[in-house]
Amino acid sequence: MKRFLMDRLITWKNATRHKPLLLEGARQVGKTWLAHEFGRTQYVNVAYISMFDNPVMMDVFAGNLSVDRLIPALSIEAGTRITPKDTLIIFDEVQEIPRAMTALKMFNETAPQYDVLATGSALGIAMHPGSAFPVGKVDRLKLYPMTFLEFLYACGQDSLAELLESQDFALIDVMHERLMTWLRYFMYTGGMPEAVSTFADAFPNVDFNAIRQVQAALVEDYRDDFSKHTDSQPRPVVSTLRLNQVWDSLPTQLARENSKFLYGAVREGGRGKDFEIAIQWLVDSSLVLRVKRVSTPLNPLAAYEDSNAFKLYCLDVGLLGAMSGLDARTLLDGDALFREFKGALTEQYVCQQLTVQQRQVPYYWSAANSSGELDFLYEQNGQVIPVEVKAGRHKQAKSLIYAQKKYEYPLAYRYSATHHSDNGAIKDMPLYMAGIV
Question: What pLDDT score does 133 carry?
Answer without folding.
Answer: 66
